[in-house]
Amino acid sequence: MLTLSFVINILIVAPLTWLMLRGAVAMDASFGPDTDARRILACLYGTIGVASGVGLWLLASGQANLAEALAWTLLPMQIVYKLGTWPAVGFQSPVVRTNLGVVVLHSATLVTLL
Fold first, then answer.
1. pTM exceeds cut of 0.70
2. What pLDDT does 47 receive?
């Protein structure tokens, strides 16, 4: 499950980060116009991706205990942030609905680590 959470993070945030930092108009409908705030969000997404990549590297190099320690910081932070998007933006947003799916995955991953 931990590997899956890290991989899903990367698969979601890598293209989003790239497109947002490039100012892609395709992001406007879900994330608003290309503003400083959207680019800051892209940096947060990029950080999640890098941390997930480090987690995968730790797992591959036999350091599962360190990958789990990273997960106990990264995944709860994502869960809280992503849950917060629901009341802040509303369930009609496709970003919020995707976020809630990620919350379910990361919550299940944390349960497996207990």
1. yes
2. 98
